[in-house]
Each structure stands twice: as C-alpha cells, then as structure tokens.
Design brief:
CATH topology: S-adenosylmethionine decarboxylase
Radius of gyration: 18 Å
CATH class: Alpha Beta
Structural class: alpha+beta
CATH superfamily: S-adenosylmethionine decarboxylase
Order of helices and strands: EHHEEEEHEEE
C-alpha cells in the first residue's frame, strides 16, 4: 500500500422521495441489502435488521470487507445508507447502483470518504487536529 491509498471507501447516500411501502418493508430491504453486498463481490458474514413501530427499518449487512447499513424514515420518504468496503475486492459503487434501482429515489446526494488514509511521518502534507479542534504541531 502506498501513502496515497486508503484502507477503505465509505459511500454515504441520502435517498429522498422513495416510496413509503418500499421503505417500510423490512424483508424487502434486507434482501436488497444482501443482494447489494453480494454484487460488490463481498463476502456476507452476518445480517441484522429491525422493523420499528409505527414505521421504519434499520439494518446492517456485515461483510468480511466491512459493512452496508441503512436507516429508513418512510413517513418522510427518506433513507440513509452507508456502503463501506475495505481492500480492493469489493466495489461499493456496485452496491450503490443496485440500491438506486431498488429504492428509486427521486433525489439523492452521495459522498465518498476515503477511510484510513495512512500517511507516514515523512509526508507532512497534512494537519493533525486534536479533540478541541486545535492543530497539533511537531516541534
């Protein structure tokens, strides 16, 4: 791994104006999330989903390469989806494409975060920040 490579890719998806019945169907969402994980090339190791009353679903598909997670608010037509994969085997954008087709949102926003950007001490092209938001300076 070079200093410019990340350990993982984390795609955050905001899906708006999805159908109520799709967002409140735990079995359907669970099946779609498992299928999305498999389409990335990942290995599914565990699955946990919960249906809430009066509405909403939360769940996670744990994969050897990290996880896919979802939280839905059917009453708002909204789903928050995390697609996090580590290594080179699983492509989170393949999961995104499948879930986009499944949920059919009218509006989406996405952001990809490179997780675990390992920078060696020889590379000073960064600023470390402490918990108070102050820059940490090496003397």
């Amino acid at each position: 791994m070079t200093n410019n490579q990340a350990l993982g890719r984390h795609i955050l998806v905001e899906a708006y104006d999805c159908g109520y019945n799709i967002l409140d169907n735990m079995r359907g969402i669970q099946g779609a999330m498992i299928e999305a994980a498999e389409r990335t090339g990942a290995t599914v190791v565990d699955v946990a989903f919960r249906k809430f009353e009066p509405y909403g679903v939360s769940g996670v598909v744990v994969i050897s390469e990290s996880h896919l997670a979802i939280h839905t608010w059917p009453e708002y037509g909204y789903a928050a989806i995390d697609l996090f994969t580590c290594g080179d085997k699983a492509d989170p954008w393949k999961a995104f494409e499948y879930l986009l087709d499944y949920f059919k949102p009218k509006r989406i926003t996405t952001m990809e975060i490179k997780r675990g950007n390992l920078i060696t001490t020889e590379n000073k092209n960064y600023i470390a920040i402490d918990s108070a938001g102050e820059a940490i300076v090496d003397e």
